[in-house]
């Protein structure tokens, strides 16, 4: 079974939908126009119910198969994300963002379109037995929109057996699928280190407590966390990405602020790493006579762990759509992170990667979702629902 014929016939419409999303990108929790467009399309398709405003701007469409609603065991959820990024677009495309400083640089416009394409086919044919929920979540890019929807009662209101997600993947051929059972994407969060010394004239350092060399020493010392404290067979990242201090050449500043990210595939290791960071910052700062405070961001994305059974099932679905040669099992995990992990903590889940060809990388100002991938992704979604909820 290659791409679904009716989806291939709808390719022009799907491209229009995708370009419309792309022209009007919205940041996390501000996806008002986007959510309205998604809800309108689901209603036009004849969905049995369309609920909006879940976890902020989230939308869930409810579609029953030919024999009516399914119980939890005969219900599944398919998820896409809706938010864009604070990036100035540089694609020069005709469908480029019309909102300065905001763009769909992670392909969530494509994710919505692929899921809408699959939904349209499922709504026309209803060749399944049970209930398919299509979930369009806000704020994947750091805002934990998945958690917001779950806390707003997502699984109480839409009880289901399993949840499925998908992300486009630049550098792999369009129409190819990539997955692995177990950890696929990393746990991730951010930290801020505030250093307070005593500023003064740059020519009189002995009368000051300079937070800059203290910050530099902390950056160096933090390199030992992964190198000396983490099992070499485990994976972890501790990266300092920002260092802000001072405004003038001749002034020693009062304060310095460092920021960075921690990534692992293991929440327990994550907590352990913060113990090392806090100890190093506290003791190095003390050696410099500087006061230090470490804060962890409120949004923690756990590691995304694919259920073994669901992953085998999804790989079979992908093979049926794209052929054996285009489906790759056991791909290496990535240190990128995804809030799909929150669904996977609640339900058996599988997060699939779909090739996006030779586009610029995710989050790059010249990145664009490849429209040729839409029919493959939409066919995957509809085939997945029909196989997960077969007509008995
Ligand atoms: Zn992203
Ligand atoms: Zn993304």
Question: End-to-end distance, in Å?
Answer: 20 Å
Q: Largest sheet, described in full?
A: 8 strands, mixed
CATH architecture annotation name of the largest domain: 3-Layer(aba) Sandwich
- The Rg value, from CA coordinates, equals 23 Å
Structural class determined from secondary elements: alpha/beta
Strand content: 15-25%
Number of strands: 16
Spans of 5+ residues with little confidence (pLDDT < 50)?
Answer: none
Strand arrangement, major sheet? 1-2-4-3-5-16-6-15
> Compounds present?
zinc ion
CATH superfamily of the largest domain: Zn peptidases
> Can you count the helices?
11
What key attributes describe this structure?
392 residues, alpha/beta, Aminopeptidase, Alpha-Beta Plaits, eight-stranded mixed beta sheet, binds zinc ion
Characterization of the model:
- By secondary structure, the chain is an alpha/beta fold.
- It folds into two domains: about 5-185 and about 305-390, Aminopeptidase, CATH 3.40.630; about 185-295, Alpha-Beta Plaits, CATH 3.30.70.360.
- Helix content is about 35%, strand content about 25%.
- The protein is built from eleven helices and 16 strands.
- It has helices at about 5-10, 10-25, 30-45, 110-125, 145-150, 155, 210-230, 265-290, 310-320, 340-345, 375-390, and strands at about 50-55, 60-65, 75-80, 130-135, 160-170, 175-180, 180-185, 185-195, 200, 235-245, 250, 255-265, 290-295, 305, 325-330, 350-355.
- It is elongated, with a radius of gyration of 23 Å.
- The model has no long low-confidence stretch (mean pLDDT about 95).
- Bound molecules: zinc ion (2 copies).
- One zinc ion binds near residues 106, 141, 362 and 363.
């Amino acid at each position: 079974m290659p791409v679904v014929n009716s989806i291939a016939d709808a390719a022009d419409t799907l491209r229009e939908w995708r370009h419309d999303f792309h022209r009007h990108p919205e940041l996390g929790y501000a996806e008002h126009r986007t959510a309205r467009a998604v809800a309108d399309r689901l209603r036009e398709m004849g969905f049995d119910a369309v609920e909006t405003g879940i976890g902020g701007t989230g939308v869930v469409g409810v579609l029953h198969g030919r024999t009516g609603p399914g119980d939890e065991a005969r219900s599944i959820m398919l998820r896409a994300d809706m938010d864009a990024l604070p990036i100035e677009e540089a694609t020069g495309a005709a469908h480029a963002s019309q909102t300065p400083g905001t763009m769909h640089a992670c392909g969530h416009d494509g994710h919505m379109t692929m899921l809408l394409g699959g939904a349209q086919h499922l709504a026309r044919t209803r060749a399944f037995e049970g209930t398919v929920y299509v979930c369009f979540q806000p704020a994947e890019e750091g805002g934990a929109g998945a958690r917001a929807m779950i806390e707003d009662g997502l699984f109480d209101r839409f009880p289901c057996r399993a949840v499925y997600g998908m992300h486009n993947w630049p550098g792999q051929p369009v129409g190819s699928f990539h997955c692995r059972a177990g950890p696929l994407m990393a746990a991730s969060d951010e930290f801020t280190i505030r250093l307070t010394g005593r500023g003064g004239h740059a020519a009189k350092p002995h009368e000051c407590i300079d937070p800059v060399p203290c910050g530099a020493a902390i950056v160096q010392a933090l390199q030992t966390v992964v190198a000396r404290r983490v099992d070499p067979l485990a994976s972890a990242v501790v990266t300092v990405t920002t260092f802000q201090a001072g405004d003038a050449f001749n002034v020693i500043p009062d304060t310095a602020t460092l920021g960075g990210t921690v990534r692992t595939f293991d929440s327990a290791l994550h907590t352990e790493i913060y113990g090392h960071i806090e100890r190093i910052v506290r003791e190095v700062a003390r050696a410099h006579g500087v006061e230090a405070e470490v804060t962890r961001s409120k949004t923690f994305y756990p590691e995304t762990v694919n259920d073994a059974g669901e992953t085998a099932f999804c790989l079979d679905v992908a093979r049926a759509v794209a052929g054996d040669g285009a489906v790759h099992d056991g791909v290496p995990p990535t240190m990128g992170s995804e809030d799909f992990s929150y669904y996977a903590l609640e339900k058996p889940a599988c997060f699939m990667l779909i090739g996006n060809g030779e586009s610029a990388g995710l989050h790059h100002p010249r990145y664009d979702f490849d429209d040729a991938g839409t029919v493959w992704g939409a066919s995957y979604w509809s085939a997945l629902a029909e196989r997960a909820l077969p007509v008995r």
